């Protein structure tokens, strides 16, 4: 009985969590639809949500293929960034001089806007590679800096404990520094996932018609030239959805790995 | 005198940090095999530093440290915080010292079960640190220190962060463990009352730079119970320790019932 009331309370809480944002979202779409119809705004200026949805369905074959291209670029760049970022962070943790010599470059890479780098990369590289490199460049830094921070901020008492038991450097790395850095790394990964997508999109837009690429950004550029505004919106919607999926994917991984022990994944209540 | 040959002897030990702080100066201390020695002193007088020197975690800048049997015995260390690995469950936390030494999981089962049994945590092998109370975490930390059967157990204010009731309980448990394992214990504390209840000997530190200002032998049977807390002898020891503490400069002790 008591458990049942508890369940009810939980269902109600869940409802209260989800209902308001869902209602607000639906209301915004409704308002948009209403304004477009009421003021008879032509679709080449602002398409109604319903038209965007039908375009999405109608052009699904082309758009979904582009979405897969964008996703695969994002994940290729992200894998490279994870590999490079983690390896360099490990090198930072082992040798101070490596950190001092290379960290400034990482910072420069990070603070220079990718929009400004992309055209340059397009001069030197073929468009496909340039897109990949752009996505890599923006995804790399959060992985590197978060992992390096995680490796450096291991509980110093635990480090003492490992010294006390005469642990080798390798044991210390495997049993102590890597697990301690995991939450930081995953935080970096979550940010990097979104950034890699942005990097890929920016580069593809910069490549414009020069690119023979067929990612979602290319669809936007292409639809823009043809004044096919509903399709631009449909591609834009898919980009947002892709971003959300990537974020949700890494949040899920993070939750799976940390739920049992880390405070960031703690249930409140 | 009574408890046997010195396990370790500190002769004129001093420690200065690069920051210019001198934590210890002219520290002379014999640790006898099998004793329960409390290091009692005001905050900042270098007790933790002395403990870390004995553990070999840091080297003294002056003086020397000699081990009776030519080498440092196996050492267990309990920090003020439980210092557990949050990503590992209780079993794997206690396994750590054995794992680092290359003991296989199968061979570790028995000593770990024993260590957890000693601290009363049988059945919590699969729990993660954050699922435990403060007192239970401290018990895990003690089990981890005991699992390698150290000849010397070093404890740095292990119970300072716990509530009174838990602390008294763990004091009793520790005395029981000590008599079972016959290991030598060096126990750092702020509390006159804790030191008088637990120790066979108290080394009272002066304020910084720290050195041993006075040692007080507690010539009572090592097995102590709540009766002892109420005895007149206990009151005397507390008063002596307290006087020694305040005899030194800028002394500070915790006042508690
Ligand atoms: N790694 C360090 N670097 C610089 N100074 C230090 C270091 N460790 C300790 N000290 C200084 O040495 C002095 C003694 O420190 P220590 O931690 O040994 O004191 P303590 O007696 O354990 O104090 P408490 O009871 O508060 O824990 C302090 O003034 C402290 O600031
Ligand atoms: Mg201390």
Give the secondary structure arrangement, pairings included:
The complex is a heterodimer of chains A (269) and B (257).
Chain A: H1 2-38, H2 49-58, H3 60-94, H4 96-111, H5 114-124, H6 127-152, H7 156-164, H8 169-207, H9 216-225, H10 229-258
Chain B: E1 6-16, E2 22-32, E3 36-40, H1 47-55, E4 62-67, E5 75-78, H2 90-100, H3 105-118, H4 134-146, E6 152-156, H5 164-181, E7 184-189, H6 192-198, E8 201-205, E9 212-217, H7 226-230, H8 232-247
Parallel strand pairs in B: 3-7, 3-8, 5-6, 6-7
Antiparallel strand pairs in B: 1-2, 1-4, 8-9
Helix pairs in contact in B: 2-3, 2-4, 3-4, 6-8
Molecular structure report:
The complex is a heterodimer of chains A (269) and B (257). The two termini of chain A are 20 Å apart. The model of chain A has no long low-confidence stretch (mean pLDDT 88). With 269 residues, chain A is mostly helical. In chain A, α5 (114-124) crosses α6. Helices cover 83% and strands 0% of the residues of chain A. Chain A is built from ten helices and no strands. Chain B has eight helices and nine strands. Chain B has helices spanning 47-55, 90-100, 105-118, 134-146, 164-181, 192-198, 226-230, 232-247, and strands at 6-16, 22-32, 36-40, 62-67, 75-78, 152-156, 184-189, 201-205, 212-217. Chain B has a six-stranded mixed sheet with strand order 5-6-7-3-8-9, with helices on both faces. Chain B has a three-stranded antiparallel sheet with strand order 2-1-4, covered by helices on one side. Chain B folds into two domains: 1-74 and 150-257, Rossmann fold, CATH 3.40.50; 82-149, no CATH class. In chain B, α3 (105-118) packs across α4 (134-146). In chain B, 36% of the residues lie in helices and 23% in strands. Chain B is an alpha/beta fold and 257 residues long. Chain A binds chain B through residues 155, 157-158, 160-167, 171, 175-176, 179-180, 182, 260-263, 266, and chain B through 52, 55-57, 75, 77, 79, 81, 83, 85-88, 96-97, 99-101, 128-130, 148. The structure holds adenosine-5'-triphosphate and magnesium ion. The site of magnesium ion has 3 residues of chain B, from α1.
């Amino acid at each position: 009985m008591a458990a049942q009331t508890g369940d009810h309370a939980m269902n109600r809480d869940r409802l209260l969590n989800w209902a308001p944002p869902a209602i607000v979202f639906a209301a915004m779409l409704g308002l948009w639809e209403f304004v477009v119809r009421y003021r008879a705004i032509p679709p080449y200026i602002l398409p109604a949500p319903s038209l965007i949805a039908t375009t999405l369905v109608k052009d699904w074959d082309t758009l979904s293929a582009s979405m897969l291209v964008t996703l695969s670029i994002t994940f290729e760049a992200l894998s490279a960034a994870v590999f490079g970022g983690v390896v360099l962070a490990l090198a930072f943790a082992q040798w101070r001089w490596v950190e001092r010599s290379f960290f400034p470059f990482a910072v420069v890479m990070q603070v220079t806007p990718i929009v400004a780098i992309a055209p340059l990369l397009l001069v030197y590289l073929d468009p496909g590679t340039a897109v990949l490199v752009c996505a890599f460049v923006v995804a790399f830094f959060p992985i590197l800096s978060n992992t390096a921070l995680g490796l450096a901020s291991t509980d110093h008492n635990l480090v003492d404990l490992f010294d006390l038991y005469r642990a080798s450097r390798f044991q210390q790395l495997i049993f102590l520094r890597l697990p301690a850095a995991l939450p930081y790394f995953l935080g970096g990964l979550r940010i990097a996932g979104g950034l890699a997508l942005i990097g890929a999109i920016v580069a593809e837009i910069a490549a414009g018609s020069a690119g023979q690429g067929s990612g979602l950004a290319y669809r936007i550029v292409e639809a823009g030239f043809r004044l096919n505004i509903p399709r631009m919106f449909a591609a834009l919607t898919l980009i947002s959805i892709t971003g959300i999926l990537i974020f949700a994917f890494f949040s899920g991984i993070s939750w799976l790995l940390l739920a049992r022990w880390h405070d960031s994944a703690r249930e409140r209540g | 005198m009574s408890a046997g040959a010195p396990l370790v002897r500190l002769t004129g030990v001093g420690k200065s940090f690069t920051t210019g702080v001198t934590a210890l100066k002219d520290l002379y201390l014999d640790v006898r095999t099998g004793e329960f020695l409390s290091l009692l002193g005001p905050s900042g007088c270098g007790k933790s530093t002395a403990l870390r020197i004995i553990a070999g975690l840091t080297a003294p800048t002056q003086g020397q440290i000699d081990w009776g049997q030519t080498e440092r015995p196996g050492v267990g260390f309990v920090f003020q915080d439980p210092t557990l690995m949050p990503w590992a469950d209780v079993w794997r936390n206690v396994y750590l010292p054995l794992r680092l030494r290359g003991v296989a999981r199968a061979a570790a089962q028995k000593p770990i079960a024993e260590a957890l049994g000693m601290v009363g945590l049988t059945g919590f092998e699969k729990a993660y640190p954050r699922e435990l109370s403060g007192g239970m975490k401290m018990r895990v930390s003690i089990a981890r220190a005991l699992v390698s059967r150290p000849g010397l157990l070093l404890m740095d204010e292990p119970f300072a962060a716990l509530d009174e009731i838990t602390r008294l309980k763990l004091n009793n448990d520790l005395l029981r463990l000590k008599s079972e394992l016959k290991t030598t214990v060096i126990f750092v504390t702020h509390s006159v009352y804790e030191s008088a209840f637990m120790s066979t000997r108290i080394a009272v530190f002066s304020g910084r730079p720290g050195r041993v200002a006075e040692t007080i032998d507690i010539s009572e049977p090592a097995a102590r119970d709540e009766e002892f807390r109420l005895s007149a002898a206990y009151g005397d020891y507390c008063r002596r320790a307290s006087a020694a503490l305040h005899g030194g400069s800028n002394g500070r002790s915790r006042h508690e019932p």
